[in-house]
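Homework help board

Subject: predicted structure for assignment chain

Our instructor gave us this sequence and asked us to write out the predicted structure in token form, then describe one feature. I got the tokens but I'm not sure how to describe them. Can anyone check?
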Amino acid sequence: MADCGDLERNLRDLNRRVGDLERCTGCRNGASSGGSGGSPVDVEKIVQLVLKRVFSDDRWKACERILGKIILGKR
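My token output:
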């Protein structure tokens, strides 16, 4: 199982990549910066792919099982 340091590094990497994507699309926090317009990057598709990867990861599935046991008492 990954330790907290690994998770923190992965989160920082994810935040950096999201920032890169925001700069690439000319969008920050949902507000357009009014740049060149029509970006070739499909942000919605990228977000869907990221979520698909996260939710299919074995580590996420293990967390879901653990949280289910803690919160709902599932076996």
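Reply (TA_rk): Your tokens look well-formed. For the description, you could write something like this. The longest helix spans residues 4-25. That's the kind of observation they're looking for.
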